[in-house]
Amino acid sequence: MTDRKAELAANLARVEERISAACAGAGRKREEVTLIVVTKTYPASDVRLLAELGVRHVAENRDQEAAPKAAECADLPLIWHFVGQLQTNKVRSVSSYADVVQSVDRKRLVDALSRAAVGAARELGVLIQVALDVDSSDRGERGGVGPDGVERLAESVVEAQGLRLDGLMTVAPLAGPYEGRPRAAFDRLMEISSRLRVAHPAANMVSAGMSSDLEEAVAAGATHVRVGTAVLGVRPGLR
């Protein structure tokens, strides 16, 4: 085993222990939570090693980096998630490789994704990104639509060709009433998810929690956690 593969295996084992412990503490089954490894800034060679180690879900946040990496790893049995803020001029490229777009926060983006998905003869899973630093239907500081805008945007996704409404995503806010309170933020997301699932029962995916707060997300009920640093190490630009 290469040094890098051994390093990734050890990091994955530690993250697995954290998720398992969080599930046990919350009275949940381990299989209720899916690990998505965020591979941004890391090379395709790391993605290959992760796949060899059993990882099936990977995420990227910049199309310029994600598109060539996904192409290089097209032979691997991976599910690709796009988690970054997405401009409409990147939609056609993203829709060619992403299986799930987790950062949908406006009608214009829904329309663009729908056109691209139909053009590519693909079905894209969509998560509505919820901004918890605003109360209204405004966009948040880190993207996302405010809680008041979720249901209307969900209807747009459901009505759009080529798209499948899978659920909700959030990033713990850096401002507003939930600043520094990730568990409260994730509890709020679960409330919004429960309301959404009344009208759309299949939209049961809840993506929340990262390396620093995955335990709080699991305790709140998240179905997917997005972990980068704890698996891959501190990103090169942050060292």
UniProtKB/TrEMBL annotation:
The modification N6-(pyridoxal phosphate)lysine is found at residue 40. Keywords: Pyridoxal phosphate. Gene3D superfamilies: Alanine racemase. The keyword Disulfide bond does not apply. Residues 12-236 form the Alanine racemase N-terminal domain. The keyword Transcription regulation does not apply. It holds the Pfam family Ala_racemase_N. Belongs to the pyridoxal phosphate-binding protein YggS/PROSC family. Pyridoxal 5'-phosphate (PLP)-binding protein, which is involved in PLP homeostasis. This is Pyridoxal phosphate homeostasis protein. The lineage of its organism: Bacteria, Bacillati, Actinomycetota, Actinomycetes, Kitasatosporales.
